[in-house]
Amino acid sequence: MAGQEDPVQREIHQDWANREYIEVITSSIKKIADFLNSFDMSCRSRLATLNEKLTALERRIEYIEARVTKEPLLRPLEDHFK
């Protein structure tokens, strides 16, 4: 009977070692997933902020372009009324 306990105990110890290994792997995967989710949210937020800034700059450029293209057209009229 003592000879049968050794293999059984060995299996139990191996089972616990496997469970601990699986727990470490599972925990590591969860940490990686949490990091990636956090990174994703951070990137999305920063990209949204950047998009708002770019949109504002585009509007300003369009306004300036409109003023520059209208300006030469207005000068002959101003000269005419002088």
Automatic annotation (TrEMBL):
Q: Mind telling me what this protein is named?
A: Protein BRICK1
**Annotated Gene Ontology cellular component terms:** cytoskeleton; SCAR complex
Name of the coding gene = BRK1
Coiled-coil-forming residues are: none
**Top-level taxonomic group:** Eukaryota
Cite a single GO BP annotation: regulation of actin polymerization or depolymerization
The family assignment reads: Belongs to the BRK1 family.
Q: What is the lineage of its organism?
A: Eukaryota, Metazoa, Chordata, Craniata, Vertebrata
Q: Where in the cell is it found?
A: Cytoplasm, Cytoskeleton
